[in-house]
Write a structure and sequence with these properties.
about 290 residues, N-(1-d-carboxylethyl)-l-norvaline Dehydrogenase, domain 2, Rossmann fold, binds nicotinamide-adenine-dinucleotide, single chain, alpha/beta
């Protein structure tokens, strides 16, 4: 398949390389010269604009920083430039409203399109083990699935357009809340004279058990090896968690959903990310 790939950054670079490994002809574009050079080394053909990369493509995949950029790239360079009948996939994490708006614009110009944000960071993007949460029609999902499978270990249909983004931000809001809760519990255990390893041994098999504790423990030397064991080198950076929390609160407000703990988590990560945007999000334990 001829696949145009727009946005070859930390995530997109590895994803495009995996499409090449999957036997696809990848037509790549990024604003950064360094990203273009790296994509060329990974076997992509590179172009001087997104519109040129889309010419003759069977599919277009994007991995861009935010909703405003996704909307401007799709309206200026993808819709009307990619051949009619191409399947369009946006894998960026963006707000639900913009995702639905861009998909509706694409559909009214005769394209199938899905929002397909990912779970898993740079390591999973490089290894081809991302999880994709996909919003769009049944037909669009069926067409997108084999392309996404070349870059991930799981591809899940979340429902209509925008529901991939909805799943992503609901999941990450919950992750932020249980990471903060887990950090508070470890910090309190220490103040009460309870050893971190002992608390872990008890809580990890009791009702306080959760993913932040047993898969991503924020205390160095306890549980599995995590960013805590590497001086909180990200991992999943606090700045990206803050981005997702802001998207979650925006979506909750638009939908009239009450998310008091989500709002509190955003306030806590806002304060932490001011000086620690690049630090792993589990490093919040240092503040608690
Ligand atoms: P990044 O900043 O490393 O990459 C974004 C790339 O887009 C850059 O190379 C930039 O030059 C390019 N770009 C920006 N505007 C462009 C335009 N108009 N045309 C073409 N290229 C353009 O970011 P990233 O870490 O790769 O993240 C990409 C997306 O994936 C974001 O939406 C992010 O929230 C999401 N995400 C990231 C992670 C992670 O761990 N990094 C995990 C899950 C999801």
């Amino acid at each position: 398949m001829k696949i145009a790939f727009i946005g070859l950054g930390n995530m997109g670079g590895g994803m495009a390389a995996n499409l090449v490994k999957g036997g696809h002809e990848v037509r790549a574009f990024d604003l950064s010269e360094a990203a273009i050079a790296a994509a060329r080394e990974h076997g992509c053909t590179t172009f001087a604009s997104a519109a040129e990369a889309c010419e003759g493509a069977d599919a277009v995949v994007s991995m861009l920083p935010n909703g405003a950029i996704v909307k401007s790239v799709f309206t200026a360079d993808v819709i009307g430039k990619a051949p009619k009948g191409a399947i369009l996939l946006d894998c960026s994490t963006i707000d639900v409203t913009t995702a639905r708006e861009v998909i509706s614009l694409a559909e009214s110009s005769g394209y199938d399109m899905v929002d397909a944000p990912v779970s898993g960071g740079i390591a999973a993007a490089n290894a081809g083990t991302l999880t994709f949460m996909v919003g769009g029609t049944e037909n669009a999902f069926k067409r997108a699935e084999p392309i996404l499978a070349a870059m991930g270990k799981a591809v899940i249909h979340a429902g209509d357009a925008g529901n991939g983004q909805a799943a992503k931000i609901c999941n990450n809001m919950l992750l932020a809340i249980h990471m903060i809760g887990t950090c508070e519990a470890f910090a309190m255990a220490e103040k009460l004279g309870l050893d971190a390893q002992t608390f872990y041994d008890i809580s990890s098999v009791s009702s306080g058990q959760n993913w932040s504790m047993t898969s991503y423990c924020p205390v160095p030397g306890v549980g599995l090896v995590t960013p805590a064991d590497n001086d909180y080198q990200a991992g999943f950076a606090a700045g990206l968690m803050l981005k997702d929390l802001r998207l979650a609160i925006e979506a909750a407000n638009a939908a009239g959903a009450k998310v008091e703990l989500g709002e509190h988590a955003r306030t806590i990560y806002e304060a932490f990310a001011k000086d620690n945007a690049g630090v792993d999000f589990s490093g919040i334990i240092r503040k608690l």
